[in-house]
Amino acid sequence: MADFVYLASQSPRRRQLLEQLGVRYELLLPDAAEDAEALEAVLKNEAPAAYVKRVTGLKLDAAVARLKQRQLPPAPILCSDTTVALGRAIYGKPDDASDAARMLHELAGHTHRVLTAVAVQQGLQRFEALSTSRVRFDSMTTAQIQAYVATGEPLGKAGAYAIQGRVAMHIAQINGSYSGIMGLPLRETALLLRAARFPI
Known about the structure:
Layout: E1 5-7, H1 12-21, E2 25-27, H2 48-69, E3 77-86, E4 89-91, H3 97-107, E5 111-122, E6 125-137, H4 142-150, E7 171-175, H5 178-182, H6 186-195
Parallel strand pairs: 1-2, 1-3
Antiparallel strand pairs: 3-4, 3-5, 5-6, 6-7
Helix pairs in contact: 3-4
């Protein structure tokens, strides 16, 4: 059994969270030729939970193919995807600063869900879990939203915010997994790795 996992994610926060668990990892990232962002396209009328689980599965399929193609030594492959949902509306990564401001205006003053799917591939076996948390934002003024967007923090983040960042001053309540909201729910991840017989 390998003493490390492959992490198929570009997210520095996921790396940090795996380190928190004491799990050694090697990055298994897409080649320049791979269009990783295309995997995140939302299908028409797709429910948020179905979406995040499907995208995680596609990312893991791509990572399994990458491992085989690069002829790397076998080890469990860990993949994860996070999305933000208000009702059935899915809030992915904003296109730009004005898109980030739009998302934050819509989320402000409401409770939304943060869904993070995790999947581990061990040989031919796949183990999957879904973490759902609820986050309530205070009402935010346009000036407050613009000030936050100006930090650049919302770009590249689902729902246009980072829970561990400056937006925390506007968060009234969290119900669920803080690490799941960051992008990798540690309890579910540990359970999946144990199911895959990885020593943790």
